[in-house]
Amino acid sequence: MLSRSSASTCFRRSFHPALRECSRRRIATAGIENYEDVDVVIVGGGPAGLALASALGSSSTIQNNLSIALVEAGELNKIKEWAPAAGAISNRVSSLTNASQDFLKRIGAWSAVEQGRTCGIEDMQVWDGVSDARIFFSASDIGGEAARNGMSRMTENLNLQRGLLRHLEGLPQVQLLQKTKVQSITRNSNEEQSWPLVHLDNGRVLRSRLLVGADGFNSPVRSFAGISSFGWSYDTQAIVATLEHHPRGAFEGPNTTAYQRFLPTGPIAFLPFSPTVSSLVWSTRPHIAKALLASGPEVLSTMINAAFRLPSFSLKYLYDRILEAQASGFPITPEKLQEEIQFREKAHSIEPSSIYSSLLGRGAPVGISSPDSQDLPPIVTSLQPGTPASFPLRFNHAEEYVGEGKGSRTVLVGDAAHTVHPLAGQGLNMGLSDVECLARCLENAVLRGGDIGSPTALLPYTQERYLANHILMAAIDKLHEVYTTDSEPVVWARSVGVEVLNELDSLKAAIMMSAGADVKQVGAGWSMSADVIRNTSMAVDTLNAMVPALSRAVLGGIGKLIAQASKDPKEKAT
Q1: Does an H or E element contain 305, and which?
Q2: Is the pLDDT reported for residue 513 higher than 60?
Q3: Distance of alpha carbon 211 from its chain centroid, rounded?
Q4: What are φ and ψ of residue 255, in 5° steps?
Q5: E-assigned strands of 417-562?
Q6: Rounded CA separation 314/84 (Å)
Q7: Comparing C-alpha atoms, which of 19, 239, 527 is closest to residue 39?
Q8: Banded pLDDT at 374 (limits 50, 70, 90)
């Protein structure tokens, strides 16, 4: 019988051919259960987990030294064999920054993603639903790779996952355990640095030098590690759907502009995919979301058009009519809703031929279009069947990303570490940045001959990613709080800020660069920052000269409201 030390040595390299059979089982000794040694166990087969497995498996440093296994409860083969009909777009989509695309290219996975099902975002228009203050972003403002490829690229989550799975087919050193649930996670001894034991529902037990939680918001790995989190549920539900519409007119640009309007009930976003298909993400109050979905696709598509065009108080009127009809047991009909909208448009002096008319009677654009026709998205004509859905939105951030004490040898990535409002489209990009950083840290540990599960190896990961994620999450949360109000002082303050920002090209370029639109020119951010400081100071001086008569009471009220929105998320959670 092998001794404990010799058996441990045997299992250190569990996927080496000479030791493969030895790694299938742990030689039983008194009081010790059977298990298999795997250097890195990743729990979760979503985009973050698959990207990490691809990054580790494609690294020559890691593939020659570490064994890797990914455990997923769902059936990954269904995703790998996903073959949607031509023109059909899934309702769960993401905007991948150029930085995220660059990472996927470096690990060899981007070429496996079907490019024909992606769409580059060349421009973005964002405006206030109360004041109509607007800001315009263009990839051409920062030049370089962004000018060629766009600020970001829309893709279906399933397209990305399928591409990652195809890439993993060529990495046999990564073991995929699909349709396999994690029943429990324990330790093989009471020592703090002992290896976690992952008990699977098929009877197998994996002993891991490093256990990675890529298992989402309700992360079993985070629970095992004893890592607490802070956060809250927003009083908001996201409606998603795939939109069909007419192509842009002959004298208009292509459908490569993303639109987002901030309404008091939450932002609504129009995200392009093809000349005639786009995607919707509409954040609104839960009772409104429920009523809109229950009213049917025709009512929902009509309200989507209205939400980009009508004043916010008219939208509130329409919400009330829809809710009243829903409460009566007789949902509002598309015809009745269009009558209500027609009445509101007449009251606002909106002509039927205007781009601000949301009535479905408008056909495909013909002739020379209005100069401002691209200030709004195309009129939605229908929704792809089966795509309207909704889900709750929340803010959640783990207190730490790396387990300590009895939770040692664990690390969190993606939604297991953080969940954020989708208004900035950064959730998946944050997860991919986590993955890129963690893979780099593990490579460095292997090159130095270190222990990949030790605090020393994992410290650079938490130092780099925690603060970066926290700053971005806090900014997104503040945007949500500042824009979900129609208080006049706050509307005035945010509108002035947006209009001033729209005039500062250097600041807009810096924002796009910091958001990952450019992966080459990060160093240029310092010189841009100097311009930003000077331009912002000039803008503040100008505003002070323009509004000397504003009362201290009003400014004080604005200060209190913005100070409340500017609290650190940890303070708000207490």
Answers
A1: helix 297-307
A2: yes
A3: 24
A4: -80, 70
A5: 418-419
A6: 38
A7: 19
A8: confident
* Phi, psi for 483 (deg, rounded to 5): -90, -10
Residues for the chain: how many in total?
574
Measure the CA–CA gap between 444 and 54, rounded to whole angstroms: 17
> Average per-residue pLDDT in the chain?
83
Q: Is the pLDDT of residue 528 over 80?
A: no
How many whole angstroms separate alpha carbon 69 and alpha carbon 79? 18
Check pLDDT > 50 for residue 23: no
Residue 185 near residue 220, CB atoms below 8 Å: yes
C-alpha span between 388 and 382 (Å, rounded)? 11
Q: What is the pLDDT of residue 276?
A: 95
* Residue 113 DSSP class: S
- Express each pLDDT in 58-73 by its tens digit: 999 998 899 999 999 9
Closest CA to 314 of 264, 240, 376: 264
Nearest C-alpha neighbor of 393 from the set 417, 423, 416, 431: 423
- CA dist 161 and 195 (Å) reads 29
The encoded tokens of residue 7 equal: 């058996």
What phi and psi values does residue 523 have, to the nearest 5 degrees? -65, -25
How far apart are alpha carbons 443 and 565 in whole angstroms?
40
CA atoms of 300 and 327, how far apart (whole Å) = 17
Cα gap 432→150, rounded to integer Å: 19
Structure-block tokens of residue 449: 């001959």
Between vectors from CA 138 to CA 426 and to CA 306, what angle results, nearest 5°?
Answer: 75
What does residue 43 show for φ and ψ, rounded to 5 degrees?
A: -100, 115
pTM for this entry? 0.84
Residue 363 is predicted with a pLDDT of 59
Round to whole Å and give the CA distance between 381 and 243. Answer: 8
Burial class (CB in 10 A: 0-12, 13-18, 19+), 385: exposed
**How far, CA to CA in Å, does 343 sit from each of 119, 314, 337, 347?**
37, 10, 10, 6
In 3D space, the residue among 426, 428, 421 whose CA is nearest the CA of residue 479 turns out to be 421
Torsion sign, CA atoms 267, 271, 275, 277: negative
Q: Helix or strand or coil: residue 439?
A: helix
Give tens-digit pLDDT for 115-171: 999 999 999 999 999 999 898 888 887 766 666 778 899 999 999 999 999 999 999
With a CB cutoff of 8 Å and minimum separation 6, the contacts of 488 are none
- The answer to whether the CB of 269 falls within 8 A of the CB of 421 is no
